[in-house]
UniProtKB/TrEMBL annotation:
Gene3D superfamilies: Ribonuclease Inhibitor. InterPro entries: F-box-like_dom_sf, F-box_AtFBL13-like, F-box_dom, FBD, LRR_dom_sf. This is F-box domain-containing protein. It comes from the Eukaryota. It comes from Ambrosia artemisiifolia (Common ragweed). It holds the Pfam family F-box. Residues 6-55 form the F-box domain.
Amino acid sequence: MVSAEEDILTNFPQDLINPILERLPVKEAVRTSVLSKKWRYRWTTMKTLDLYNQFSQQFLEIGGYQHNGFIRVISQIMTYHHGPILKFHLHIPKEINLDSFQEVDQWIFILRILVSRVESVDPPFEFQGFPNLQHINLLYVNFGGGTVINLPQLKILSLVSCRSVNKFNIKAEKLQALWVTGCPDANAMVLQLLHSEHLNVILAAEKFPKWLPHAVNCLEKLKFISFSFGDLNQLQGALCMLRNSPNLEVLRVTPTQMGPEADLGLTSTFLESPDCLDQTSLMLNYVEMTSLEGSRPELLFVKLLLHCSPHLEKMIIRPAATLDAEKRLNITKDVLMFSRASTKAKVAFLDPQP
């Protein structure tokens, strides 16, 4: 005899089951298979799979980060899933020690099929990429022996603390935003993507290419983070990018705290040379400098931007939180004495960020 509760579950509207499942943690969504025959394996058609921090944390609590724990469960979820996927989040904890990328390669291949909404395909000899993926955020990934991936619809790419990024051969002709931080060997990949005709939002990097083969006409917004004004290589790379970005309108710079290895005399001398920007006229109309310590190369860099930016409308200067009131006042006095190529340029001094 069927109970009233079971009858309600069995006859629950089909178009409401998926929205309910996608609001549950994956573990709980899988458990709904026991509710009724109609719910059995419905989780395998969920269009959103969220295997992020909350999911992986459960394995940490039970010590299930061995090969037969976390990796096995992820593989089972990916294998059993047979419906199209529109959103997929996966967090691989640092406690997982992958001896190879064999499992990840398998997940990527399965995901490619699901994202492409293909139920059965003839597996290609070599993985070709994600035809519909638009946003990727990769953290702590080691690209090891080299990875080639085609992302024809990718618009946003974020790489954080990744290794061997120069071996990440990516094809993304529609890329609009690139964020690279904590990736010390990303220059080749950055150079490759800088010449996308559609890259026009943000590039953030800690180390910058020292040369560009031709102008980067598509770059409109640029952000330098963890930037050291005591590192001549970084400074030369930054000015190279400014010199070769004729349509750059927005620049944001966040310096890092300089250590004993910083050579402020060398970088100051470079910035004082008359040809450090080759008399380039920049198209900047907005500049934001944060966490300034008031060092000589920092001030010379500000002076250079004001001198070479005839279209500048606003410059924001925010000193480092560690500076006392007197040092902040000195920065203000120095900057106000610099000449400006733009008659419209306004310089605003803001309080340090907490």
